[in-house]
Design goal:
CATH topology of the largest domain: Dna Topoisomerase Vi A Subunit, Chain: A, domain 2
Strand content: 5-15%
Radius of gyration: 29 Å
Structural class: alpha+beta
Largest sheet: 6 strands, mixed
CATH architecture of the largest domain: 3-Layer(aba) Sandwich
Number of helices: 26
Strand order of the largest sheet: 12-14-13-15-16-17
Number of domains: 5
Length: about 575
């Protein structure tokens, strides 16, 4: 959708929203002390561990660890994209979404903050096409085609299939031309406009909320192109959508798996046979963003490709794309079909039972990955095993840290016959492991609770930034654990001037610090009833203790160096000042 949403508008929405009221409209909350609690909607539990804090405008589950502000809740609970969550919040407080002018060369005539008319038009056109399929005598060839493919009227109804008459101006006779142009339903040439889709079977493309965004269209003869899609518009970006997701979610909001295929008819044919968990990409390669979206609904994705060379190349590209999103608990399988077959033809040929067996027993991405890389190598030779490590290494480094990544490295170790240490050095993970070990040692010693609680206080109470700047001199010159985090939060507070913590943590969405900030936001929520002056004293005391500890540690280091005659000139001057 064109036009960025300004930061100040997002901040304003978060200030207007009462997160308790918002979440309570979706799940029942119970007042417990100063907080509100409920059974967590994101995992199964018998006793409530889901907490909502009104003062901080933050929710957190102590069971599964999920947490965030009002935007995060809607994204997780309703499976929305960021922009969609903003739209939902705006509707909740009764305001229109404010957007900045787009830098794109495409300039819509419909105001970006008022798209109701465009969505209504697309819905009416879809209904119009569906009516044409039933009533227009010309549509008989489309009906015969659907019958030939074995589709029933129920499936055609569920997917809102329609027919575009072989006419140059069928739509403009009924609907507003200006809106039709905005929707991509009319095209212009030499100053004249005419219907983009003519004499085609029509497939409405809906978003997960059920709104019509665009259309796919198939010819019913040998004309080219065989399939034609709507162009990109203010409401439609083909790289951000999949066909059939809305219909899938209507049948099951949490499917066991999602099957990703290549064509509209594949999705519809599979639904005809009772497989309601298939979606199709819209003529684009499977992107990281689409995988992330689909993983919101299911932990298992099955990517289906033709069994020819083109299908194999597409499968490998999908594997490369998927690496950064394969967090622990997620699974991707690669399903290569027999050459010359697609899901539509294969399920009709083999039947439902055999097709389901194919899906369930298809190859896991991990197996496909090593099989694909090793198929042209001789792993009985050192040269072959060495080259396997060389080509596998960049891909494994894309995996998120976790058990799955470790298991993939273990499998590479077995195939390459390297020792664990040799493989780790080859993967250039020595430094990373040293960091992890240091962190582990630090945690085993109890960590630095003062630093963590003090930084959490600043994050949860942005007004403390003024105290830090005005009342605690020279703090930024003293090295202590978490100093860089503290400086980062302070810069953010000074720059954005957030009204509360919910607004502040939104500044970190999509950044490398987001996960850490959310952990700090959930830290010691019981302080929410503590008086303002007590919180200020706790923060000041915490900072002074950090500075005192840092100075003591520095003094000990300098004295140790002095005893070993290893001080440089600058360190000697520092030691003299500290001793004075």
């Amino acid at each position: 959708m064109s036009g960025l949403i300004p930061r100040h508008f997002i901040d304003d929405i978060l200030v207007r929203i009462d997160i308790v009221e918002l979440i309570n409209s979706h799940i029942p909350l119970k007042k417990t002390g100063s907080n509100y609690t409920a059974l967590c909607p994101f995992h199964n539990e018998k006793s409530p561990s889901f907490t909502v804090n009104c003062k901080k405008q933050f929710f957190h589950c102590f069971g599964c660890g999920v947490g965030g502000n009002a935007i995060s809740f809607l994204m997780d609970y309703l499976h929305l994209e960021f922009v969609e969550a903003i739209e939902e919040l705006a509707a909740f407080v009764g305001v229109d979404v404010l957007r900045e002018p787009s830098n794109s060369s495409y300039i819509p005539s419909v105001k970006p903050d008022n798209l109701k008319a465009l969505y209504e038009l697309l819905e009416m056109v879809a209904r119009f096409y569906a009516k044409q399929l039933k009533s227009n005598t010309e549509a008989q060839k489309a009906i015969e085609y659907l019958k030939l493919r074995g589709l029933t009227g129920y499936v055609a109804r569920d997917f809102l299939l329609g027919y575009a008459a072989d006419s140059w101006n069928e739509l403009s006779k009924v609907f507003d031309k200006k809106l039709l142009l905005e929707a991509g339903l009319l095209t212009q040439k030499d100053g004249r406009s005419y219907d983009r889709f003519r004499g085609r079977l029509m497939f409405p493309i809906r978003d997960k909320r059920g709104r019509i965004l665009a259309f796919g269209a198939r010819v019913l003869d040998d004309s080219l192109p065989k399939y034609l899609n709507s162009p990109e518009t203010i409401v439609f970006s083909k790289g951000n959508e999949v066909y059939g997701l809305y219909e899938l979610l209507q049948k099951n909001s949490k499917p066991e798996r999602i099957l990703i295929v290549e064509g509209y008819m594949d999705v519809i044919a599979l639904a005809q046979f009772g497989i309601y968990y298939a979606v199709a990409t819209l003529g684009t390669a499977t992107s990281k963003k689409l995988l992330e979206v689909l993983f919101r609904y299911s932990s298992e994705l099955v990517l289906c490709f033709d069994g020819d060379k083109a299908g194999e190349k597409a499968a490998w590209r999908a594997v490369e794309t998927a690496m950064p999103v394969l967090k622990d608990g997620r699974q991707i399988k690669i399903m290569l079909l027999p050459q010359g077959e697609d899901p539509d033809s294969l399920i009709r040929e083999e039947g439902l039972e055999f097709f389901l067996k194919r899906i369930i027993s298809t190859q896991a991405l991990s197996n496909y990955f090593f099989e694909y890389l090793a198929k042209s190598l001789d792993l009985t030779t050192m040269e072959g095993r060495s080259y396997l490590v060389t080509i596998a290494k960049p891909h494994l480094q894309q995996l998120p840290e976790g058990i799955f990544k470790r298991m993939m490295e273990d499998q590479l170790q077995k195939l390459s016959e390297l020792s664990e240490q040799q493989l780790l050095e080859s993967l250039e993970n020595s430094k990373k492991l040293a960091t992890l070990k240091t962190n582990k040692d630090r945690r085993s010693k109890g960590g630095n609770k003062i630093a963590r609680s003090t930084i959490a206080l600043l994050l949860q109470n942005p007004r403390l930034a003024e105290i830090l700047v005005k009342k605690i001199p020279h703090w930024e010159k003293i090295e202590f654990p978490g100093l860089s985090v503290l400086k980062n939060i302070l810069r953010t507070v000074i720059h954005y001037k957030p009204a509360n913590m919910g607004v502040l943590i939104e500044c970190y969405r999509g950044t490398n610090e987001e996960k850490m900030i959310n952990k700090l936001a959930a830290y010691e929520l019981e302080l929410s009833t503590t008086p303002k002056d007590v919180i200020e004293k706790m923060f000041t005391d915490g900072m002074n203790n950090l500075i005192k500890q840092a100075k003591k540690s520095l003094l000990n280091d300098l004295l140790f160096k002095e005893n070993n005659n290893s001080l440089n000139k600058e360190e000697k001057q520092t030691l003299i000042k500290m001793l004075k």
